[in-house]
């Protein structure tokens, strides 16, 4: 097969693989600015840094788009076993956990398979539910997200939530709770696998474990920013190809792999594509999302504020953690009409990534998918792991990310964006509301859809 874009490909690939810029940028974001968690000084520094880099690289219209949201700041927390023994256990609260003082018994549901919440409902009521971070509990065939385990605990009448990291040696794992832009109605904390196992042994040997939980986290209105820059198209500037990643990490972490490896890969694609701006008939827009980690807030805000532009988005490629992803595949969020096109691109680029056809709701493509936008992600098509590993822990640090991983993601993104921008026979158009509804309610999603409806109504009722 001949490659119609061979000479541009050679320049782009050559430029990316002979530059260490992406790793430099990763160190600035993580080592200089820290977690970049919503509300921290480093968050704003990161937004300004990305904007300045957009300008340096020659992007147009580089700017911040501010938005308000319900922010959360970590306070002090104390977890004490008060019966059958007395012992303090180290723990962290989960973002959007409300401040509390409470005493209650623990109910251990294990990995948290959806069915167990239904059958054990009576035993959960009035207790603090304990579960772990396994993503396929009891071999359930879909990712059972922390938010779902929390939501099911809530609906079963739990008054608190303990999330046990199922990996040894990684400390506690964090992650937001609650319903997007609102606090969780019950407190959520996280403990290590080792302390979780201690509590299980204690319960087995000496009976029901009762704890006291005291926390002082603060909830308040905050401002975050989406960071936007673009290469305007020369022929059809109104048609947009978008690349993006969130830039906030969790406050206990550098968030190097998730998400900063994605941020710097998007920046690197921007840097090299800017050199060929005059050859791009359509606009390529680069957007870094604020506060994804506590509810995809930046991308939801963007989809709301830019509602009249969404139908002009040809393709959104989400790159959350793409540079650190174990494989750089293109996962199309159920766009079979694009399969042949992307297979063709793969062939002409002489690459061997997998092409997926599935979607999930756990990153910034989702607000756009809900509006019918054609979305995809650079992510592993086959999830071979049982969880996030060091992700969402204090060990997601710069040393886990390789320069080649960043280059691979940047190069793939730049070459894909180039192709979609030049493509005259783009065989997909956005879904209308009815098609989105059909997508969400297909037969193998019955269980998750039923849960989502229930929990949405539940949150509404208690609001
Ligand atoms: Zn992420």
UniProtKB/TrEMBL annotation:
Single GO cellular component term: extracellular region
Signal peptide range in chain numbering: none
UniProt keyword annotation of Glycoprotein present: yes
A Pfam entry, by short name: Peptidase_M28
An annotated GO BP: proteolysis
GO MF assignments: carboxypeptidase activity; metal ion binding; metallodipeptidase activity
Cellular location(s): Endoplasmic reticulum; Golgi apparatus; Lysosome; Secreted
All copies of domain PA, residue ranges: 115-197
Taxonomy, superkingdom: Bacteria
Keywords linked to the UniProt accession: Carboxypeptidase, Endoplasmic reticulum, Glycoprotein, Golgi apparatus, Hydrolase, Lysosome, Metal-binding, Metalloprotease, Protease, Secreted, Signal, Zinc, Zymogen
InterPro entries: CPQ, PA_dom_sf, PA_domain, Peptidase_M28
Domain Peptidase M28: 226-415
PANTHER family: CARBOXYPEPTIDASE Q (PTHR12053:SF3), PROTEASE FAMILY M28 PLASMA GLUTAMATE CARBOXYPEPTIDASE-RELATED (PTHR12053)
Subunit structure: Homodimer. The monomeric form is inactive while the homodimer is active.
Annotated protein name in UniProt: Carboxypeptidase Q
Source organism of the structure: Candidatus Desulfolinea nitratireducens
